[in-house]
Design goal:
It is a single chain. This protein has 446 residues and is of the alpha+beta class. It folds into 3 domains: 106 residues, no CATH class; 123 residues, no CATH class; 188 residues, hpI Integrase, Chain A, CATH 1.10.443. 45% of the residues lie in helices and 15% in strands. The protein has a 3-stranded antiparallel β-sheet. A 3-stranded antiparallel β-sheet has the order 8-9-10, with no helix packed on it. It has a two-stranded antiparallel ribbon with strand order 4-5. Strand 4 and strand 5 form a beta hairpin. Helix 4 packs across helix 6 and helix 14 packs across helix 16. The longest helix has 22 residues.
């Protein structure tokens, strides 16, 4: 039977001559200890000396502080109740150490109602960043900030508050015009107004929120041991509506060519010139994402190689791809070469993060769109990737499998044959060359 005892040990005396008070858990012939917040002096104890069977003198301290005794005895009673009410025969699955941790977790702050979801979500976002999943981290961080806005700036939200009804109201909030408060790089709070979002953004936000909630379940619940601290699941009742079919974000070959040929004297601003070049470089490199273009560091033998930031953490092959650098891309790579040698391109010297880099390129593309006469869409870097895929499939008759391969959508680690077959990127090279040659032949070519 597991037993408990209040303990104070002479060898644990601190420099201020105080002793920590702990609760001993004795189980299966082993001892483990639950620390408490209490420290006592010798005046608060009764000191007793005794000799062991080997003749070694030992000192025991017994508490005489009534307040601490009452509080710790109350806790021991609570442990006894938990032992009989929650554990029962399952106690046999635990070691003494595991048992002490279980009692501590069940009685200290940290039960369902006191888990701070915002605090957990921030830590989760940081883990994503440390794993190199900066794009995912950025998306989830925006959801966390929106939750704080929804709760009137309150940056502590108990996980029990996130119910199905909470999710319904949060979705309604996202769809309406709203005010957001953020701190800028100088620590000053800036207030901005944003219009409500559409179905696609709602889908993305709620999906990211569900991912973080599921991560909290994995963190705080241990189903194997029957330890369920988060007992509700709001996404069981609240159903995320299916993702709307994406609006096709592709340009005609003539429009790609017009962006390429936009003159610097017409673009005027450096940011617009940079945006034109980055857009075309992305297109020349088979629609490479901005996060990958920003951080790419491997370039040799006429090829760039990288692991796709967005999916490398979820794929067995680390989302690795190698792309031949065609002459069109080589010109721009040399133009924006990183002189420090840290990376291939110098965008990291211009912008502190890939997100800021991408945001500024998209702002510059507004001027580019104005100059070349693309007015029906808000031009963004996504159009380089989508346009490459559409032109490859519809104009160059590249197979869908090869388009998927070129866009780095294929996880080689999941295909048994790829264990034996050496990767051959010439399919991507041929597809890319076909697309770039078609752009050369586009109407209006100079």
């Amino acid at each position: 039977m597991a037993t408990f005892k209040i303990c104070v040990f002479e060898h644990q005396r601190r420099r201020d001559n105080k002793y920590p008070v702990s609760i001993r858990v004795f189980w299966k012939g082993k001892c483990s200890y639950i620390g408490t917040e209490f420290y006592v002096t010798e005046k608060q104890t009764i000191k007793k000396s005794y000799f062991t069977e080997t003749g070694k003198k030992k000192v025991l301290f017994a508490l005489k502080d009534t307040f601490i005794l009452n509080e710790l005895n109350r806790r021991i009673t609570e442990y006894e109740n938990i032992k009989s009410r929650k554990l029962g025969f399952r106690i046999e699955m635990y070691t003494a150490r595991e048992l002490s941790k279980y009692f501590e977790k069940e009685t200290k702050p940290g039960t369902d109602s006191s888990i701070d979801f915002i605090e957990f979500a921030r830590k989760h976002v940081n883990k994503m960043r440390e794993a190199g999943r900066t794009s995912t981290a950025g998306n989830q961080n925006r959801v966390v900030n929106s939750l704080i806005d929804f709760c009137n700036g309150r940056d502590s939200i108990a996980i029990t508050e996130i119910t199905s009804n909470f999710l319904v109201k949060f979705e309604e909030y996202l769809r309406k015009d709203r005010v957001m408060k953020r701190k800028n790089q100088f620590g000053k709070t800036v207030t901005t107004k944003r219009p409500g979002v559409g179905d696609t953004t709602v889908f993305n936000y709620m999906t990211d929120l569900r991912v973080m909630f599921n991560a909290a379940l994995a963190e705080f619940n241990d189903e194997d041991m029957g330890e369920i601290r988060i007992q509700h699941y709001p996404f069981r009742k609240y159903k995320i509506k299916p993702r709307p079919e994406n609006k096709k974000r592709n340009l005609a070959p003539e429009q790609i060519k017009a962006i390429r040929d936009a003159q610097e004297e017409d673009l005027v601003f450096d940011r617009a010139i940079l945006a034109r070049d980055v857009f075309m470089l992305s297109f020349y490199l088979v629609g490479i994402n901005m996060a990958d273009l920003y951080s790419i560091a491997e370039y040799g033998n006429g090829r760039i190689s990288y692991e796709r930031q967005k999916t490398k953490g979820r794929r067995q092959d680390r989302a690795y791809i190698s792309i031949k650098v065609e002459p069109e891309a080589e010109i721009l790579i040399e133009k924006y070469r990183d002189k420090t040698g840290k990376r291939i391109l110098d965008f990291h010297n211009r912008y502190s993060t890939s997100h800021i880099f991408s945001s500024n390129v998209n702002k510059g593309l507004k001027k580019v769109a104005e100059v070349v006469g693309i007015s029906e869409i808000p031009l963004s870097t996504y159009y380089a990737r989508h346009s490459w895929a559409t032109i490859a499939r519809n104009k160059c008759d590249i197979s869908k499998d090869d388009v998927d391969l070129a866009l780095n959508h294929v996880d080689h680690g999941l295909k048994l044959a790829d264990i034996y077959i050496e990767k051959d990127w010439t399919k991507v090279d041929r597809a890319n060359r076909a697309v770039l040659d078609l752009i050369k032949r586009a109407k209006g070519q100079k």
